[in-house]
């Protein structure tokens, strides 16, 4: 064995390093990797596909169960009313005057628990009858109030006795426009000649929250045909018309069909991104086993190369690491006629000349750079330490006030949002975040403030999709939103709005934060405008609006003082802050651009 290795040593010494690496790459790296990766890929892809199908099937079944349970309760109540003679007699009776009807109405409702039962399940029921002696109002109305609604027209068009309808603006008054979920049942068990109906309206927002509270990572869409009725994602806004499906939206999604009271619904469960990587982690034992199998043969072949040049390459690599130190280390071995020996000799000549340069020029330059970087880091740490208590105090104050005034368990939801905010405060390893991440933080903050102010606070956020991946300093936008909330909405007794708009301009980004709060005088506007444009580290030491100045300082630092600030407003009307950030062209700077992708 030893004699055979010696002959291989002599044979390999006749090849150039380039040919040796070609042989090593093909035999020991390329072929094993192709075989191993092919097996791993095919195996992992198979298991990943089966696992995702199973998970999405379970999610679809759970969503079906939740919907069936909620709507099934309405059906059971409808069947109880359908066969209840007391309801039939109350709706069919001819009343001589309004007083007689009102007395009968109050006596009838006082003897039933249906209203309480429906209220506990986020449902509102209304009875309709073709009896012109009743008085419209409360839980009973004449049929005229129902005839022009979409659900009534669909039920009679399809000639059904009951049905479930998802409609947009099913209100006869047409005053409000919103999504509605209606269960409508004809009450003709005793008398088929007089039209009588039971309408149960579900709380659309509660249905969306039930799906979202399942906390699935997968996006779930519940559709009727190509209409998206319910979703735990971006399609659950009850104030807009139902959106339509396209093929791209449900590509690779799991499909499950159900029928509820004659309405055919399809549940789509979209796969989670990067699930393939998760599958690879799950199959790690198999991958490790394949790697071990592919290491034994390459290791034996590497031993042959090692006797020819690997030892010298390793030694050369070790001395190359001294490049990071203050003094380069020469290599003693210069024997041999191949390329490695020539490289060692050239390296030693370079060491001799470079060591002199390090002592005279480079070493002093490094010291200057270290001092500059240390100063910048100290300034950023000082800014970070000021932001943390400023925001945390306001959030905790909101939770405290809510707990004292409301005395309810919604505090758990507030603490959840606080966790999102607190995570932003403590993770200062990278001061830059995407606009998408910053906007998520803004939403969490405004949701917390919504608990505090209730109907006094409303907000709307508009972000161009092409701007979501741009980077900005952490807590920049939320600082101005917090200022608008505390100094604008808090001091105003009537309801107010906060608008956040982010768009791409020709030469950069434009961020606009507007509130309809109490506003400011011209003098205060001018002072705030001056402070923002001239924000500096020294100004932070004087106190005042630390958060605004802090955000302006960091924006000016990362844009080399090219960020622009504009404040407009009117006392009693509101305030608008506009921030314009320049876009640096790709490759123009060696630092990370504030708005680079």
TrEMBL record:
Q: Determine if tRNA-binding is one of this entry's keywords.
A: no
Q: Which residues cross the membrane?
A: 21-42, 284-302
Ranges for the HAMP domain?
307-359
Q: Which residues form the signal peptide?
A: none
The record's keywords, sorted A to Z, are: Kinase, Membrane, Phosphoprotein, Transferase, Transmembrane, Transmembrane helix
Example GO molecular function: phosphorelay sensor kinase activity
Q: What is its main location?
A: membrane
In its keyword annotation, does this UniProt entry include Flavoprotein? no
Places the protein is found: Membrane
Q: In its UniProt entry, what is this protein called? A: Sensor histidine kinase
What is one term from the GO cellular component aspect held by the record? Answer: membrane
